[in-house]
Amino acid sequence: MDIWEGIRTKHSIRAFAQTPIAEGEARQILDAGRRAPSGFNAQPWYFIAVRDRAMLHELSTIGRSTRHVAGAALCVLILSPDRETNFWRNLFDAGQAATYLMLAAHELGIASCPGTVYEPVRARDLLGFPDDWKPYILISFGYPDPADPRLGTGKGGRKPFEEVVRWEKW
Amino acid sequence: MDIWEGIRTKHSIRAFAQTPIAEGEARQILDAGRRAPSGFNAQPWYFIAVRDRAMLHELSTIGRSTRHVAGAALCVLILSPDRETNFWRNLFDAGQAATYLMLAAHELGIASCPGTVYEPVRARDLLGFPDDWKPYILISFGYPDPADPRLGTGKGGRKPFEEVVRWEKW
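^ Those are the sequences you sent over. The predicted structure of the assembly is below.
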């Protein structure tokens, strides 16, 4: 799948088939995240990859829009060793890593959906990362559920080009 | 170019050829950014696309690592209508848009390099966006300078997979 096609056709999907994600494909998705760009090449992201069904159920409750995690075949938590001064940069870089993870999955036919972590302490209790590490986001991965009525509808849409882009000046 | 190849081969490049970027290719890069994912599909990003040589020179001085903008064929400023409560999300989403812009360019043979805006007031004076809008980052775009000694060296490198990824728990 070429990049432009990937960019045009990837949409968040929240309903997943029960098909597991093979080890090799999980590794390729994670390796894509590892290769994402970052400010000063700091690579501030770390990934906890969860496939355990009971843990996926627990993680589905740590955000306001993370219910989809319960049905995922794989969930990746992006976190950083957060220092106050790098907060800005780390968050921007977490966004860069997220798209690399999701685009690489899309090329493999694997759908995804991100969800912000609203309960960092609970995430820490569940996953055991150190106190001064900051969890940003969970991303669910799985093969799309073929019975999902929203599949292929391209739900969401985008603002028109002319609204989003200005040439030369505001 | 397939997505995995793009992810493997894109590196930041700071030295650009003098070749201009055609209108159609500039629009495709910007359209890729417009199609990036965002929290709750809020699409909080806006892009100011600059090709004017004098303005590129001015913009090259508004960050600590934005000198490359002076030689770019195109520079895109990502900015958001920043409200305190959305700051987090907007910054993460700006990172998502940045990778879409840069990966789409890479497929067209166009190199890129981001640089954080350290002088938002000066950016505003130059580009005329409203007071309550927040400029996050500049991205330079241009065809790579074939004389760049760093070209093709894959400078940067990444942490090993085993350092970045944990399975199931920390």
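The longest strand of chain B covers residues 133-142. The helical segments of chain B are 3-9, 23-34, 53-59, 87-107, 120-127, 161-164.

Shout if you want it in another format.
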